[in-house]
Amino acid sequence: MAYWLFKSEPDVFGWDDLIAKGDKGEEWDGVRNYQARNNMRAMAMGDLGFFYHSRSGLEIVGIVEICAEAHPDSTTDDPRWDCVDVRARRPFEKPVSLQQIKGDARLAMMALVKSARLSVQPVTAQEWQIVCALGDTNP
Q1: pTM of structure
Q2: Model confidence over 115-130: pLDDT tens digits?
Q3: How many domains does the chain have?
């Protein structure tokens, strides 16, 4: 199993919006960055990811599951762009802020710290465990 982080602006599509989609989940569409697209192409059914509120909030608020592997993004006719579908698995007991992550030396190499602008990024198994512990959430 691999781990990921998905960024979304909460006023555009937030955690509550994903919860409202239910088990069907939602396409993680509109990504127009090759590295983020390639990350989605590497995902497998059942992989897990953090749901991160960007711009406002700046915190990890929940865990998502990949429920459909990479497929053409329905928001464009350009065949270069793929997306995955994700569904909400569980909220974090305590959201984990970007400030907390940056302040934890064990997470200094996390993509969220090093590649802050990338909207879909990998998370190592060790980072996954640390962030879940910071959020009092069962990984």
Answers
A1: 0.96
A2: 878 999 999 999 999 9
A3: 1
Between CA 15 and CA 36 the distance in angstroms is 20
What single DSSP character describes residue 74?
T
Asked if 87 and 24 count as a contact pair (C-beta separation under 8 A), the reply is yes
Give the DSSP letter of residue 24.
Answer: G
In the three-class reduction of DSSP (H, G, I as helix; E, B as strand; rest coil), residue 104 is classed as: coil
Q: Is 139 inside any structural domain?
A: no
Give which of 26, 33, 39, 11 is closest to 65, Cα–Cα. Answer: 26
List beta partners, residue 75: none
Contact present, 50 and 62 (Cβ < 8 Å)? yes
- Domain with residue 29: its CATH number is 3.10.590.10
Tokens 């960055």 label which residue?
A: 33
Residue 75: both structure tokens together: 């928001």
